[in-house]
């Protein structure tokens, strides 16, 4: 209801006009908008819950314990609305050897989740059949290429490794298919890439070739694997992306030494990038701790 007063020259009221509106239609419209908004919020919350639940099924709930070693991992989602394609795992092989991997599937969402699940379980099964790292990636490449032959090509980058503890640390063999180079942080604080040049994307072509490198972790050394969500993050608006070389310098300058400490430092680094992290990021670290005498 609204009222309008018309006055004369002397200021006295001459006419009062009152208009009455039926507000029932407006209230019904507002209530319908509120119900639609609540429904949309509910659907968005359910979608986020589904994405979070599905994401957890693609990662190990806890990392297995490797006798005599320290291990740690972290997964940083770029969005709470979509399932990412990054994955990692650590598992026992025959005898005292262990297998581990970290990879990144192209794309996001449900389709990427299907490929992620296939890649993860294929890697574990292939490692049991033939634990040699290059052969493991050969098997994954054959499965992915055959699965999506004639359809929408799906591929991933992966670094797969095996480790065998020995008296002075552990021997590590890494094979890479198009994945960023692993980094070793040595006990003296230096850091170096374990380059695997020439490793091709996994699943893109039938005759892909993969390369491997052999290294040794001594007391106090840590192996660090990561996906490119970290090294392609933007430091701030308009700036270039964080690079692998900057990551190497960061690890060399960091006081963090063990696998849990290094993953903790990298987690803080990722969180500090804020919205600059545009892709999901997976981190995995394995370290051979110093003996009690060396730590003191």
Describe this structure in words.
This protein is an alpha+beta fold. It folds into 2 domains: 2-47; 61-295, PPM-type phosphatase domain (Phosphatase 2c, domain 1, 4-Layer Sandwich). The protein has helices at residues 24-57, 109-129, 133-147, 228-231, 244-253, 259-273, 292-295; strands at 2-7, 13-19, 70-76, 86-92, 98-105, 156-166, 169-177, 182-185, 191-194, 211-218, 222-226, 281-287. A 5-stranded antiparallel β-sheet has the order 3-12-11-8-9. Strand 4 and strand 5 form a beta hairpin. It is globular, with a radius of gyration of 28 Å. It starts with a strand and ends with a helix. Residues 47-51 have low confidence and may be disordered.
Quick description:
The protein has 7 helices and 12 strands.
Topology, please?
Layout: E1 2-7, E2 13-19, H1 24-57, E3 70-76, E4 86-92, E5 98-105, H2 109-129, H3 133-147, E6 156-166, E7 169-177, E8 182-185, E9 191-194, E10 211-218, E11 222-226, H4 228-231, H5 244-253, H6 259-273, E12 281-287, H7 292-295
Antiparallel strand pairs: 1-2, 3-12, 4-5, 5-6, 6-7, 7-10, 8-9, 8-11, 11-12
Helix pairs in contact: 2-3
Can you tell me the CATH architecture of the largest domain?
Answer: 4-Layer Sandwich
Q: DSSP helix count?
A: 7
Q: What CATH first level of the largest domain would be assigned?
A: Alpha Beta
The CATH topology of the largest domain, please? Answer: Phosphatase 2c, domain 1
> Which homologous superfamily in CATH is the superfamily of the largest domain?
PPM-type phosphatase domain
Tally of extended strands? 12
List the secondary-structure elements in sequence, H or E: EEHEEEHHEEEEEEHHHEH
First-to-last CA distance: 83 Å
> What is the 3D shape?
globular
Domain module count: 2
Could you give the order of strands across the largest sheet?
3-12-11-8-9
The portion of residues forming beta strands comes to: 25-35%
SS content category: alpha+beta
Mean pLDDT level? 82
């Amino acid at each position: 209801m609204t009222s309008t007063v018309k006055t004369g020259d002397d200021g006295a009221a001459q006419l009062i006009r009152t208009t009455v509106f039926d507000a029932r239609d407006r209230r019904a419209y507002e209530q319908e908008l509120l119900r639609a908004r609540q429904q949309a919020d509910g659907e968005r919350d359910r979608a986020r819950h589904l994405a979070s639940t599905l994401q957890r099924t693609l990662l190990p709930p806890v990392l297995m314990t490797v006798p005599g070693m320290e291990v740690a991992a972290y997964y940083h989602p770029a969005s709470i609305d979509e399932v990412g394609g990054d994955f990692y795992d650590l598992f026992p092989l025959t005898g005292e050897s262990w297998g581990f991997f970290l990879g990144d599937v192209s794309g996001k969402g449900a389709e990427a989740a299907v490929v992620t699940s296939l890649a993860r379980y294929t890697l574990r099964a292939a490692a049991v059949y033939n634990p040699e790292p290059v052969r493991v990636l050969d098997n994954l490449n054959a499965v992915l290429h055959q699965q999506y032959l004639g359809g929408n090509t799906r591929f991933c980058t992966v670094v797969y490794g095996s480790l065998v503890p020995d008296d002075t640390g552990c021997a590590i063999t890494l094979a890479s298919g198009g994945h960023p180079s692993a980094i070793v942080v040595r006990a003296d604080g230096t850091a170096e890439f374990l380059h695997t040049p020439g490793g091709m994307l996994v699943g893109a072509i039938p005759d892909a070739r993969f390369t491997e490198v052999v290294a040794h972790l001594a007391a106090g050394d840590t192996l660090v694997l990561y996906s490119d969500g970290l090294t392609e993050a933007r430091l701030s608006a308009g700036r270039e992306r964080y690079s692998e070389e900057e990551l190497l310098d960061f690890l060399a300058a960091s006081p963090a030494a063990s696998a849990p400490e290094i993953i903790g430092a990298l987690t803080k680094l990722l969180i500090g990038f804020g919205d600059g992290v545009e892709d999901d990021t997976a981190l995995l670290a394995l370290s051979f701790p110093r003996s009690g005498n060396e730590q003191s």
